Description:
Structural class: alpha+beta
Largest sheet: 7 strands, mixed
Mean pLDDT: 87
Strand content: 25-35%
Number of strands: 9
Helix content: 10-25%
Amino acid sequence: MYTLDTKQAKAADSISSSIRETGKYIGTITRAEAIVSTRGTKGLGLSFKADDGATADYLDLYTHKADGEALSSLKTVNAILACLKVREVKEGPITFEKYDKETKARAKVQGRGYPELMGKRIGFLLRKEIETDDQGKDRDRVGIFAVFQHDTELTATEVLDQKTKPERLEKMLDALMARPVYDKRKASTHSARASHSTGEDWTQDQDIPF
Length: 210
């Protein structure tokens, strides 16, 4: 015999799956890890859980080379800070879920990251990317195309300009859907740089209203 458990019934509608398609997503930052590549490039490792339960675990943004040179992904990190109305985030201990290759299951781990970003709600336009891995096999993932506030849908520029009506996001989404797949296998160096753009042209010199 089975008796209806409404919580279990609702949970069945939100079974976690990976975000694999281009589109507009609103959800929560579940990992804001301080990451360093094998070449010493530093960055912000992001994981994201959309409101429908789907997840994107590797929205990693490498921002500075080992010599300190800034990379284009730094613009995206700044867009995230602007949309969250956060002036600065400091590195500290965080706890997050990570896939364990040995147990083949997700487990909570501790690491270094940015506590102020953990659990924050945000909106992303995500674009499907195709690339070739070290073994010569093609694989696909999603990357951040643009950032916006989850509740107002204002973009970074609009937040900094103290706008109250969102106007940029719809145009960004149209541009994204016109070219929904970014094929890194054929990309030139110029295209690779452009792929990390948030679709906005703003700098940090302007006044910060928060």
